[in-house]
Amino acid sequence: GMKNNEASFSSLALQRAAVSQTNQALTEGQELGKINLTAKTRPAQLNQSQTKALSPEDGRMHRVLRIDATLSPRDPKAPGQFGRPVVVPHGKEKEVERRWKEGNFNVYLSDLIPVDRAIEDTRPAGCAEQLVHNNLPTTSIIMCFVDEVWSTLLRSVHSVLNRSPPHLIKEILLVDDFSTKDYLKDNLDKYMSQFPKVRILRLKERHGLIRARLAGAQKATGDVLTFLDSHVECNIGWLEPLLERVYLSRKKVACPVIEVINDKDMSYMTVDNFQRGIFVWPMNFGWRTIPPDVVAKNKIKETDIIRCPVMAGGLFSIDKNYFFELGTYDPGLDVWGGENMELSFKVWMCGGEIEIVPCSRVGHIFRNDNPYSFPKDRMKTVERNLGRVAEVWLDEYKELFYGHGDHLIDQGLDVGNLTQQRELRKKLKCKSFKWYLENVFPDLKAPIVRASGVLINVALGKCISIRNTTAILEDCDGSSQLQQFNYTWLRLIKHGAWCLAPVPDNGALRLHLCDNRNKGLRWLHKSTSVFRPELVNHIVFGNYHQLLCLEGDFTQKTLKVAPCDPAKPDQKWKFENYYED
Ligand code: LR7
Ligand code: MN
């Protein structure tokens, strides 16, 4: 059957399930078989015969792990130590509640936990034995924030400093996106002055995370840019495997496995293996587990690199020059959202790859809502950003984006000027979205039309057929070209370049040259029930708008639009084929 898709923009920040017992194994095994789910180059493993041969001169060496100062923490009994859950002290519930909104997580508990707490080494077995090159590129860590909670921001920075080989960290750039909190001014400067590698960059107006990251990238001096959110905890050995990927190919964009720092008890929790970053229409990011049979058949190991259609967005390493070659992010994206889609499409379609590196783990506080305010409406901001992405990267598939957000079709989304972004795509000679679908994300359901074939009147068992510039009812004949229609995501009923449309005023039907922007051509098709034109200006009876339905009259062999009446069976229509689940 056909679902009526309600607009489904995630109104809340994405939650992530910590380890689950039941993997939602989806049935994409067949589709997934078409692509390389894992990278061909597996990381080198240390074995007995190699040990002797390995010396720094070989260009390879052991992983640097001993530099983790938090393995034996100062205070093993401190709350939250080793990533354990913290219990709210008796009588402090009110305070917890009061402070929650400072970050939309348990800020009270965060303040109780040491800023350099130890967390469990959650890497899959085998990671500690992996080898990386000893001449890895250096990286600049770019962490932008707006009104981040003090203890969380500090813990993020400490986790980078304590769990990264110092020689690989060129600098840590904290980009303050015009925060309003006083403690993020002098106090932060003072605190960070003890770490020579930490630099604070302050924006003079609120730019949002996209342009804030770009400001950081402009100032970065490392070979690689590593972006992080400002409420993370980098785990043991997180950095080397990311840089190793970029070192192997400068067009690889490497993401850690993002683990969960619980917003309620601040515990550090691991997540299921074998997850890819994906999206569903209208471009909502999500994770999807590779089905167990696919894992088994392809002998995918827990430590294998996983190639992803899209990245989550917040945490990744990318070669700095490559990032600029790609034209960075679209600087026209505002505040929050959509930039992960943009960069993912750009990377894949323009010759790069997005990978999740299972031996690299970073915890992130997942929360139900953004704690900061949006300069403009949050939903509209995200939709506009996604609209820009759709217009530049999705080609003919952009209709699926609009079609899955019902209101988007009519809203006339103003996405701003796109000339530069489209020219960039041309200049980079990027591949088509169709190529992306076939080669990177074959399991995405992306039917270019919603329904097709003959269009049958359910009660009469007769079909619509083209006659000159109009349409009539006649016996169904699937082989007749004149009876073939496509129902598109923009709700047009198309016969080639021609669209079925009601004649204004008299309710008759005619063919009109298709035009995606002409609202008068749109038909809402609900399941297998009725067609009705949208409320459009030219269908006006007296001085009120009315819902009109397509109606067949068999004796006359004619079609017309008439007031919708659920009791009338001659207003029920059905296409031969539907492509939605
Ligand atoms: O206006 C802003 N200015 C900022 O500097 C808004 C945000 N920010 C900062 C903010 O303080 C934080 O450090 O930008 C960072 C990301 O903002 P969050 O933490 O509110 O975003 P999120 O974790 O809810 O959302 C995910 O999607 C975003 C879409 O634009 C970004 O790509 C985030 O980086 C991204 N986070 C992750 O990928 C972590 C995993 C969550 C998922 C999925
Ligand atoms: Mn975040």
TrEMBL record:
The keyword Phosphoprotein applies. It is an enzyme of class 2 (transferase). It comes from the Eukaryota. One of its GO terms (biological process) is protein O-linked glycosylation. Its EC number is 2.4.1.-. Keywords: Disulfide bond, Glycoprotein, Glycosyltransferase, Golgi apparatus, Lectin, Manganese, Membrane, Metal-binding, Phosphoprotein, Signal-anchor, Transferase, Transmembrane, Transmembrane helix. Residues 450-576 form the Ricin B lectin domain. GO terms for cellular component: Golgi membrane. Pathway: Protein modification; protein glycosylation. One of its GO terms (molecular function) is carbohydrate binding. Its cofactor is Mn(2+). It is a single-pass type II membrane protein. It is found in: Golgi apparatus membrane. Belongs to the glycosyltransferase 2 family. GalNAc-T subfamily. Interacts with EXT2. Does not interact with EXT1, EXTL1 or EXTL3. This is Polypeptide N-acetylgalactosaminyltransferase. The chain holds residues 360 to 940 of 940 of the full protein.
